[in-house]
Amino acid sequence: MLGNMLTGVKRMLTLLLLAGCLAAPAAAQDRRPPLSIDEVHDMLTQSTPSKKIVATIQKFGIDFPPTDDVLQKFRKWGADRFVLDALRQGWHADIPKPLSATQIRMLVGAETPGENILRLVLTRGIDFRPSQDYLDEIRSLGAPDALVSALRAATPRPFSKEELLQELGTVKDQDGIAQEVRQRGVDFFAGPDSLEALRKAGAGTSLLDAVRDARIEKPFVAKAPPAPTMPPSLAGGDSVQLICGPGDSDVPVFSVPGDLGKIATHLKCGERVTFVEKVESPPGVDKILYGDHIEGFVAAVYLDEGVAAPGAGVTPPTVILKPDPPYTPAARDRGIEGVVTLWITIDTQGNVSDVLEKSQPLGSGLDQSAIDTVKKWKFNPAKRDGVPVAARVTVEITFKRFKGPN
Known about the structure:
15 helices; 19% strand; 4-stranded antiparallel β-sheet; 5 domains; 15 strands; extended
């Protein structure tokens, strides 16, 4: 029981930390939100002086991208060139912060999949220089070699001017920002125009001095994460074994892919067939040859593509995102309740790649509601010797009238 509690705490910490890593910075309490299109429009139509509009935009920014179409609308509403210039400079997209040494240490310690941490490092960067002691520490915590190598090659992500402007709108401690600037450097020339833009955004003397004296680094470029390790895919002509799902005694073969009610025959579990191709419609169906080169169609989950089953050295996948399927109005009106049992394949990225319904259909849209929603579930993938592997598991969705699924 204690072990399960600790595992649950670790998963909760992982989700909370990832949410914090991925969330946009919250606005400081003493600073109002950026201006909306309607607010700028109202100032223009109320004959607010241009200088006041410009000053307001420079102080608070705007919450919409000033595209050519948007600027054209403001021209029609009476915006002069000074207002238009302020609009062009007043919008800054939310820029996620780089990962800190503590965040990475916590993610590794919470048993977050290494590929997920690596993706964050490659797309977000880091704000510190990893020492050999630090790399040895996270390796001892379970960090995979790919993550350790990426950190060894990484350097602190320099501040862009846009990121500094965002920091000024969300962080009160300018001395802290100045210290980070000295550690990370900047990726722009701190000329008069840049310093004036920071000053208008509220930068004080200590921060301006830090920016002026900071070393100039190359801009950070987000990198694509490495391709995931996927189970071997089948090629046309491959001989493949049929595998059975929970409760199955054989495998149904259909005569046409678009009508899964037309069963041509049943084949024994473990029998070998020839894979021909995947069917585009409906998805999740494969074309095969069986017997004396007879053409048929089977649900893709029945073909053994190197997908593991939990147990025998394979740790099961664990769910990290599990939205409830909606209870449909038609089912509620008819008072339909019941359980939908699904056989699902979870790939090495933790995504649901195949779904097969194993229970008798409930009808009234409940079966499709369960299938469509389960495809959106996210998992920590199954692992064999610490390496993510695709796996198949059974899930049950219980629909209760007026209460939704459990």
